[in-house]
Specification:
Elements: H1 6-29, H2 33-58, H3 65-80, H4 83-89, H5 104-128, H6 131-151, H7 153-156, H8 171-190, H9 192-202, H10 204-209, H11 214-240, H12 250-263, H13 268-289, E1 292-293, E2 298-299, H14 305-320, H15 336-343, E3 364-373, E4 376-386, E5 391-395, H16 402-409, E6 417-422, E7 425-426, E8 440-442, H17 455-464, H18 472-482, H19 498-510, E9 516-520, H20 528-545, E10 548-552, H21 556-562, E11 565-570, E12 573-578, H22 580-585, H23 587-600
Helix pairs in contact: 1-2, 1-8, 1-15, 2-8, 2-11, 2-12, 2-13, 3-5, 3-6, 3-11, 5-6, 5-11, 8-9, 8-11, 9-11, 9-17, 12-13, 12-14, 13-14, 17-18, 17-19, 18-19
The protein binds adenosine-5'-diphosphate and magnesium ion (MG).
Amino acid sequence: MGRIRRGTVVGIVAMALPLVVAAVVAASFFPGAGQRLVTLFLINVVAVVGIGVYSGNSGIISFGNVGFMAIGAYASGLLTINPIVQKTALPNLPEWLMGWGAPFLPALLVALVVVALVAIVIGIPVARLGGSSASICTLGFLVIVHVVLVASSDFTRGSQTFFGIPRAVNLWVALPFAILAVAIARIYRDSTAGMKLRASREDEIASIAVGVDVRLHRFLAWVLGAIISGAAGVLLAHFIGAFSPKDFYFNLTFMLLAMLILGGITTVSGAVVGTAVIMVVVELLRKLEGGVDLGFLSLPTVFGLTDIGIGLAILLVMYRLQDGLLGVRELDEQVPFLKRLAAGGGRPVAQQPSSVAVAEEGTLRVEKVGKRFSGLVALENADFEIRPGLVTGLIGPNGAGKSTLINSVSGVVPPSTGRVMIDGTDVASLPVHRVPVAGLARTFQNIRLFRNLTVLENVTVAASAVAEGRDPVELAREALAEVGLGDVADQLAGTLSYGAQRRLEIARALALKPRYLLLDEPAAGMNPAETQELMTVLDRIRTRHRLGLLVVEHDLKLIMRLCDIVVVLNKGQQIAIGTPAEIQANPAVIEAYIGRRRSAKPRTQPVIEAEAPDFDPDAAGKPA
Ligand code: ADP
Ligand code: MG
């Protein structure tokens, strides 16, 4: 996981301080109701942060975490309940659970172990799913927990109130838990594990292509979030002392999710701010709910005003700010003063890439690779090899199967026939996320960056897959320097110019220290200046790293300048392979390109001299 960075510490302190201040103010000036309210706020912070660890980082809304709160509450309730109360309240309890009357902390620990075990069992199927399927699963889990609690009346008194739990939690107990939850969540978010999960949230396919085991990281966040939620449940149980299953059901789920989404689901600061805002709104509305007499105006009792208020607050905020009040960056990444603090101590500026991995000999063999999509033959019998230190060009009209070839070779879309061997290893024998680590990196025809991660984080995700004891951030800075993006490391990737985004994708692939690099139309859509810059970068990469490069490109001038070998595809068939000079003279290639031209620009360019095709890049079309 690496050491904890300065920015992380600043972020934790920036969130912890207001919590401490709130607690001190409440205790000094508002003992009683105010103090209770702040205690509840701190417990809610733990609960919201628990959901945020999974949902914020994975992008999958969880309705299930309140289920873990319930499990925590009932488990620790059973262990701590006063034995005398227990005799009357739970007469049918099995022998082994009777008469424990345990203190708060040991009960908390046992309850968290129970929660963790349940989370592990549920997490195995949930982590295989993404998006709304996973969300629905978590909802199912919440319902199951509720039904089981209601049905197990020997243990829980069913839907009746479960009472007699020692009120061990007050303001000063809740405060350290809230700070701890914030710290754990923030450390996780900033760790390489958290970064990987956030990358998969931004673009699952691209994250797999840089070596992220999406399932594993979803699972880890699910379990970690569940434990934090479980702790919130235990705290709540020992704060209110009596509760029933309906206290841990939809209402609470809705309120906690509202807090998380309102503040900004992807950040820990957002969770804290959202919790505070919703609690203030709820308190104000609760006062109004019972009817108010202002002298000149008397408001009637409005049932459900608080829920309507939460709903309206969400609608209003989301309408203006779809990423919540704080957006996608932590507070300390936005506020100038905190940014300076986080950056203090002077950053290492790795302008000169130091370690140059020179590939050993080997080859990437593409052996009779073909791909069908139901009836359509997108690719057939592609057969060539990519060697370290050489640039192989892959050309052909739109729809020829070039992207399909790259997808098949990199394992994103497994080939229907043939096989791909990296230095003797069959790619098909590896899980997709291991392919990049085995030495094969790629970029995408349509840019696939992690847009809401910083430029540096984009590359760090990749670097951490191969870091082997080195600091992935340092490796990432080297890769950025290599493509000339060192100065924009802290910007969000989505804010870069088009050409810079293309180069960032290359840097991200380079950070995997690949031996083979497949670039799908790296210059597509670039202006001449950007193309020139890209060419410089590619030249440098090839001389410095002796990578085996495969470049798909429509600009044939560029291909002829850059490549040692050119492979030509047309309608899924490999129609030629040879040196640029051979390809330029190949009648089948000229035919394919001229046929292309006639159909593409019938009016403006009706006839092209067949003996000297000048390969106008426009004729081959711009990116999709
Ligand atoms: P190129 O990159 O050379 O422009 P592609 O590899 O993208 O061509 O496409 C080759 C052919 O395969 C096209 O006819 C395209 O419509 C088809 N194709 C590509 N991907 C899919 C897919 N996922 N499902 C069905 N057909 C596809
Ligand atoms: Mg393509």
